[in-house]
Each structure stands twice: as structure tokens, then as C-alpha cells.
Amino acid sequence: MTDKLITTGLVNNAYGSSRTLQGGPGQGIESAAAAEGVNFADMVKGAAQDVVTSIKESEKVQEAGLVGEVSAQQVVEATLEMETTLRMAVSVRDKLVEAYQQIMQMPI
Question: Alphabetically, which GO biological process terms does the record hold (predicted)?
Fold first, then answer.
């Protein structure tokens, strides 16, 4: 498996696509934040809460699969969704840390 570089554009597209799937306006991060008057800290906090919620929902499906309440296919889909969500969250975290480090190295 090859590691792909996750760019800001890819993250924006993924976020916009997820908002469309969830019934949201399907706007990019910048335009959605501007329309709602959300600052960057609130946006990051909301994204982190969405990640936690997604992971908890996937864990519930996995637990239901252990007792036979859901099919094996649903368990696999939930596990893959959780893995994808976690990979994206780690990539975003890495980009944020990298940006912070670059800002801290700037001369004043």
C-alpha cells in the first residue's frame, strides 16, 4: 500500500462531501465557516467532536456485531469507516502541528 500525501485541498473536498452526505449545504470549509461566523478554534473543535462521534458509533456497531445483532458486512463497513476517519484525523493533526512549528520558527 502506498502512502498518499493528504493536502489541504483533499481535506476541504472530503469535508464538503461529508457535509453534502449529512444533508448540509455542501460548502467548502472557508465558505461554510464564513456563512456561519465560526472561528478556526470552533471549527477544529467541531471536527474533533465529529471524529469522536463517528468512532463511538462504529464501536457500537462492532459491539452489536459481537452479539449477532448486525451483519458481518455492517461491522466491516463500520470498521473501515472508523479507520478512514482516524487516518484523516491523524493527517489533519500532523498538518496542524507542522503549521504550528513553521509559525514558531518565523522571525519576529
Answer: bacterial-type flagellum-dependent cell motility
